[in-house]
Amino acid sequence: MTTSDSVKMVMHAAKYGQLTQLRELLLTAGIDVNARDEYEDTALIIAARNGRTGIVKELLQIAGIEVNARRPHGGKTALIHASKNGKDEMVKHLLNVPGIDMDVIDKYGKSALMYAEEESHTEIVLMLQNALSARC
What we know:
This protein is mainly α. Helices cover 54% and strands 0% of the residues.
């Protein structure tokens, strides 16, 4: 199996919530947790975009994970995807990661907080506001 095939398998596992397969690939195949697919997505971005909280939680435990990774074309991070899609638990886990950047703006000029407000995800809005206030 080529590295390219292994990366595709990691992305597939992240997208479809296949935690056991993801663990095996990252541990035994030695795939870089920040590897990017042909669309420049990371496993974290894919898992967040597809609402896979368990996968996101697992990935956040891996040393060296780029929690603020962005897709070059759209600029969305895992936090923006989770906030936009109303994934309260996922947002909570992401906000607990040291170095999480809550100020990232995507190509549409929107942050995680702006998306949460726009989509009326009240609990996420409160979490983000509290996190932003706490760092001041």
